[in-house]
Write a structure and sequence with these properties.
Length: 154
C-alpha cells in the first residue's frame, strides 16, 4: 500500500492506516524483508520496532523465576507456600471460587512459620493470595509436593 495519502489523516481513513501500520510491523518481524520501500516515518518506526523485537526474541534464553521486584524466588519457598495453600484450600476448589473466610490468612500464617523454620524470608500475604487464586502450582512444585507425600512403606 502507498503511504503518501497518510500525511494528513481524515477520520474515515484511520482503519486503512492501521492496516498499513500493522503490515509494516509484520514485515519488520520477517528477517528476509529489508523495508527499503517504506517511505513514511511512522511505517519505518514500526518496522524498526518489530525488527528489534524479533532480534531480542531470538537472543533470549530462559531466565530463572524471579519475584515481582526481580529477586530470585527459591524453589523451597514456593513449595512451602503451595503446601500451605493446598492444606487449606478445599479439594473441590475451581478457579474463580471464593476462598472460605480466613483460609488464606491461615495458609499465609502456616507458610510464614514454615519459611522461618527453613531460614527463608517469609512470603507477603499478597503472594499467598495471588497464588491461591492463580489455580495450580507449577509442574516442578507438584513433583516436589508429591515426593513429600509418598508413603515409604509401599
Amino acid at each position: 500500500m502507498d503511504a503518501a495519502p497518510f500525511d494528513v489523516i481524515p477520520a474515515w481513513r484511520i482503519a486503512r492506516l492501521r492496516a498499513v501500520v500493522r503490515d509494516a510491523e509484520q514485515r519488520g518481524a520477517n528477517p528476509d524483508d529489508e523495508g527499503h520501500d517504506l517511505t513514511h516515518r511512522a511505517l519505518q518506526r514500526r518496522f524498526a520496532l518489530a525488527r528489534g523485537r524479533a532480534k531480542d526474541v531470538s537472543n533470549v534464553t530462559s531466565k530463572p523465576k524471579t519475584t515481582r521486584k526481580g529477586r530470585s524466588f527459591p524453589h523451597l519457598k514456593l513449595v512451602i507456600i503451595w503446601q500451605a495453600i493446598l492444606g487449606f484450600r478445599p479439594s473441590a476448589w475451581k478457579q474463580g471460587d471464593t476462598a472460605p473466610f480466613g483460609s488464606i490468612r491461615k495458609a499465609h500464617d502456616q507458610a510464614v512459620a514454615a519459611c522461618r523454620a527453613a531460614d527463608l524470608v517469609p512470603p507477603r500475604y499478597r503472594t499467598v493470595y495471588v497464588l491461591w487464586h492463580r489455580g495450580v502450582p507449577p509442574a516442578d512444585v507438584v513433583a516436589a509436593l508429591q515426593g513429600e507425600y509418598t508413603d515409604p512403606v509401599r
